[in-house]
Amino acid sequence: MEIGGTLIAGPAKGPLYGEITVPGDKSMSHRSVMLASLADGITEIHGFLPGDDNVATAQMFIDMGVKIEWLNDKKTALRVYGVGLHGLKKPEAMLDAGNAGTCVRLMTGILAGQEFESTVTGDASLRKRPMKRVVDPVRSMGATVTGNDDGNLLPITISGGKLNAIHHVSEVASAQVKSCVLLAGLYANGVTLVNEPKPTRDHTERMLPLFGQPVDVAVDGTISIFPNNRLTAPEGVVDIPADPSSACFFAVAASLVDGSDVTLKSIGINPRRDGWRRVMSDMGASLTLENEAKVGEEPVADVRVRSGGLHGMHVDPNDVPDAIDEFPVIFAAAALADGEFVLEDAEELRVKESDRISAMADALSAAGADIEERPDGAVIRGLASLKGGAEVDALGDHRIAMAMAVAAQRADGEIRIHNAAAIATSFPNFVALAQSIGMNVRWQDEV
Ligand SMILES: O=C(O)C1=C[C@@H](OP(=O)(O)O)[C@@H](O)[C@H](O)C1
Ligand SMILES: C=C(OP(=O)(O)O)C(=O)O
């Protein structure tokens, strides 16, 4: 959790305008470096997200003997010299996932397949997040995991090797849990199956076949993997599309600021990541798709956003996993939309980098919004504008900081957002891109 860093945001001085390309997808960047490290051969990855979360994942593999060459200063392109499924070396020190839940939860699956013992930790925020959801399944596959609160809290120590195939029926709709089990399944002695209560992002299922490892998805949603005992570096470059979770901040900002017209270039529109577009369209946003294409196994398109009268709505619980990271900024949209917005069945928001229901309720209320916290969501009644002069706390959570910077575009004065430095975990150039379309946001110490 990066503490410190104050953003000064809002109000917008005029319509937002422009065509922008946001950085690479965070989920896919993690997975690309993981699979490339475990493959036989050399993989080149382009469009990698150089956020702290993804750099932490790359560093873990460097710490386990994988050679990784950054191909540019921005760290958006890299060459990974894969060591094969069984080629990782015992790290000399603790592995550090920083702020990244995806890193530690997926790595739990990979480390469960290693005969050496390794210990993983993270920053103060990650050390509070629940790990039992991934520790329990890898234990039932035969790995040994120890840690605080019976392995629920980092640091955890993992060792394993040849694992037993299991059928894991997950209680939470979590792509991290599903992916952990599938990655552990690479080291199992038979077919590993996973069921989830609602479908979640399927990047692991889409990316493994690029590395020569088939994954089967049955009509009833059961996902299964029969391990090849080998991953192979793909022939061409692995291209990562632009991250819809980052693009969504600008989509909401453009919807909220009168007269805006912003195009988000070539962003991922995988249905399991596209919940934000369904929710925003149901709220009356003007979103049009242009130039639909495919990047690797992932569908992408330009999304053109024009400002429009947003209204409240009741979110379909089935859309929740598909928009899970976008709710902070969707709350910002709802706080400035006509009528009532209701979100239920989203208690997972409470175990992210912060408790995102209470973090957004506190921050938006401090800025004068009408938001009522519920155990599993919130009820928000929209107002015409937020209160300038508010001081809000992003609690070291990148998405709270960026969501409040967007909300502030419709305040009647500046809003100061404290503890916002964690933006660097997922979107290092957020402020520069926001300024490029005309958003009024700057770091306090920026001249
Ligand atoms: O698998 C992934 O890449 C992710 C899954 C989601 O977490 P959960 O699996 O905990 O829902 C999401 O919030 C996170 O940002 C990325
Ligand atoms: C929840 C998030 O990430 P992670 O779980 O990887 O920390 C996020 O980026 O919003």
TrEMBL record:
<feature type="binding site">
    <location>
        <position position="31"/>
    </location>
    <ligand>
        <name>3-phosphoshikimate</name>
    </ligand>
</feature>
<keyword id="KW-0028">Amino-acid biosynthesis</keyword>
<feature type="binding site">
    <location>
        <position position="399"/>
    </location>
    <ligand>
        <name>phosphoenolpyruvate</name>
    </ligand>
</feature>
<dbReference type="GO" id="GO:0008652">
    <property type="term" value="P:amino acid biosynthetic process"/>
</dbReference>
<dbReference type="GO" id="GO:0003866">
    <property type="term" value="F:3-phosphoshikimate 1-carboxyvinyltransferase activity"/>
</dbReference>
<feature type="binding site">
    <location>
        <position position="176"/>
    </location>
    <ligand>
        <name>phosphoenolpyruvate</name>
    </ligand>
</feature>
<feature type="binding site">
    <location>
        <position position="174"/>
    </location>
    <ligand>
        <name>3-phosphoshikimate</name>
    </ligand>
</feature>
<feature type="active site" description="Proton acceptor">
    <location>
        <position position="325"/>
    </location>
</feature>
<feature type="binding site">
    <location>
        <position position="26"/>
    </location>
    <ligand>
        <name>phosphoenolpyruvate</name>
    </ligand>
</feature>
<protein>
    <recommendedName>
        <fullName>3-phosphoshikimate 1-carboxyvinyltransferase</fullName>
        <ecNumber>2.5.1.19</ecNumber>
    </recommendedName>
</protein>
<dbReference type="InterPro" id="IPR006264">
    <property type="entry name" value="EPSP_synthase"/>
</dbReference>
<dbReference type="InterPro" id="IPR023193">
    <property type="entry name" value="EPSP_synthase_CS"/>
</dbReference>
<keyword id="KW-0057">Aromatic amino acid biosynthesis</keyword>
<feature type="binding site">
    <location>
        <position position="26"/>
    </location>
    <ligand>
        <name>3-phosphoshikimate</name>
    </ligand>
</feature>
<feature type="binding site">
    <location>
        <position position="356"/>
    </location>
    <ligand>
        <name>phosphoenolpyruvate</name>
    </ligand>
</feature>
<feature type="binding site">
    <location>
        <position position="352"/>
    </location>
    <ligand>
        <name>3-phosphoshikimate</name>
    </ligand>
</feature>
<comment type="subunit">
    <text>Monomer.</text>
</comment>
<dbReference type="GO" id="GO:0005737">
    <property type="term" value="C:cytoplasm"/>
</dbReference>
<feature type="binding site">
    <location>
        <position position="325"/>
    </location>
    <ligand>
        <name>3-phosphoshikimate</name>
    </ligand>
</feature>
<feature type="binding site">
    <location>
        <position position="27"/>
    </location>
    <ligand>
        <name>3-phosphoshikimate</name>
    </ligand>
</feature>
<feature type="binding site">
    <location>
        <position position="129"/>
    </location>
    <ligand>
        <name>phosphoenolpyruvate</name>
    </ligand>
</feature>
<dbReference type="Pfam" id="PF00275">
    <property type="entry name" value="EPSP_synthase"/>
</dbReference>
<comment type="function">
    <text>Catalyzes the transfer of the enolpyruvyl moiety of phosphoenolpyruvate (PEP) to the 5-hydroxyl of shikimate-3-phosphate (S3P) to produce enolpyruvyl shikimate-3-phosphate and inorganic phosphate.</text>
</comment>
<dbReference type="InterPro" id="IPR013792">
    <property type="entry name" value="RNA3'P_cycl/enolpyr_Trfase_a/b"/>
</dbReference>
<feature type="binding site">
    <location>
        <position position="176"/>
    </location>
    <ligand>
        <name>3-phosphoshikimate</name>
    </ligand>
</feature>
<comment type="pathway">
    <text>Metabolic intermediate biosynthesis; chorismate biosynthesis; chorismate from D-erythrose 4-phosphate and phosphoenolpyruvate: step 6/7.</text>
</comment>
<dbReference type="InterPro" id="IPR036968">
    <property type="entry name" value="Enolpyruvate_Tfrase_sf"/>
</dbReference>
<feature type="domain" description="Enolpyruvate transferase">
    <location>
        <begin position="14"/>
        <end position="431"/>
    </location>
</feature>
<keyword id="KW-0963">Cytoplasm</keyword>
<dbReference type="InterPro" id="IPR001986">
    <property type="entry name" value="Enolpyruvate_Tfrase_dom"/>
</dbReference>
<comment type="similarity">
    <text>Belongs to the EPSP synthase family.</text>
</comment>
<feature type="binding site">
    <location>
        <position position="101"/>
    </location>
    <ligand>
        <name>phosphoenolpyruvate</name>
    </ligand>
</feature>
<dbReference type="GO" id="GO:0009423">
    <property type="term" value="P:chorismate biosynthetic process"/>
</dbReference>
<keyword id="KW-0808">Transferase</keyword>
<dbReference type="GO" id="GO:0009073">
    <property type="term" value="P:aromatic amino acid family biosynthetic process"/>
</dbReference>
